[in-house]
Amino acid sequence: MGRVRPPHDGESLGEYLTAHGITHFSEREVRTARRANVIGLPPRVLWRNIIVPCRLGEALRRLAGCPLVVGNGYRDAAVNATVGGAPRSRHVAFAALDLDVPRSRRPALSAGHYNRLAARVWLEHAEDLDIGLGLYTSGHRIHIDHRPGRGPAYWSRPLVEPVFADVLGCSRAALRRMSRRQMSRQYRRHEGPA
User: Fold this and answer.
1) Signed CA dihedral, 58, 77, 16, 28: sign only
2) Beta carbons within 10 angstroms of residue 36's beta carbon
3) What is the pLDDT of residues 109-155, one digit of tens each?
4) Cα–Cα distance between 52 and 188 in angstroms, integer?
5) Domains, the chain, ranges and CATH?
6) How many CB atoms sit inside 10 A of residue 50's CB?
């Protein structure tokens, strides 16, 4: 996914995103905690954390063939508690995005297809990056994050496992016997880059 450098003195967050090839997610979007209707400013020391989720979002956008809307980006600890976020939420570390399919595009991009595309992006990169994926019952929102040193992860097992099994062409029982990195290797071996 490429190198991530620290921000330069005087560089805005928008300039920093652009310098890392992030063209479809604005500074305002990645700073938004939509449910709380808040736009926070993450400390500069956290800016590096958002680059991998944004790059994953760019890859998902290419596959989906439509714009994606940031439902949640940065949330400080107080906002995270207000919206009922997990105590160790990667949003607080500015290392997570919730990405929604715009309502106008939902008839053309089914929830199931969007979830399969998100699974493909996760499988493509999980062997090399410590990333997380979460699916929501609404079907048109996914969560992606970067979790250095914690290994690749996914949650919402009842939602995620059938999608991964479908993408990998295996049973859920076979899927449960694989490590996250084995799943990624199997995908890359059979499917190639997303």
Assistant:
1) positive
2) 17
3) 999 999 999 999 999 999 999 999 999 998 899 999 999 999 999 98
4) 19
5) 13-191 (3.30.1380.10)
6) 30
